[in-house]
Amino acid sequence: MPIHKKNILIPSILAGLAWVGVVTAIFVLKPEGAATFIFFFILLFAAIYLSIMIIFPHKRRAVLIASGIESFLLLRFFQLDTLINLVLLLSLLVTIEVYFWKAKN
């Protein structure tokens, strides 16, 4: 099994810039309107995705983990963050991962 050397410089720089954007959005933007809300969550998804891409080499897993975190934060924003919703969200993400893992084999 060959070992692949991973270039993490570009994702690290992009992740850092995305996190700077998230912090800037938190402190500078006023939380009024849907555009700010959508912009913040897209920027947060990019920051989480790029940070996870540094750790995991698989893009699919990074998308699943980032979308899981984003989904939970959206549920929390709308005050729907109950234990059953968290369990259902985790089971959905695990099911999707198992499906794509089995489809690959």
Protein model, in words:
There is one protein chain. The protein has 105 residues and is mainly alpha-helical. The protein has one domain (9-104). The protein has 4 helices and no strands. Helix 1 runs antiparallel to helix 2 and helix 2 (34-55) packs antiparallel against helix 3. The mean pLDDT is 90.
Radius of gyration: 16 Å
**What's the order of the H and E elements?**
HHHH
Question: What structural category characterises the helix and strand content?
Answer: mainly alpha
Outline? flat
Q: Specify the biggest β-sheet.
A: none
Number of strands: 0
Low-pLDDT stretches are none
Short overview:
The chain has 105 residues and is mainly alpha-helical. It has four helices and no strands. It has helices at residues 9-28, 34-55, 59-77, 83-104.
Produce the secondary structure layout.
Elements: H1 9-28, H2 34-55, H3 59-77, H4 83-104
Helix pairs in contact: 1-2, 2-3, 3-4
Q: Which characteristics define this entry?
A:
single chain; mainly alpha; 105 residues; 4 helices
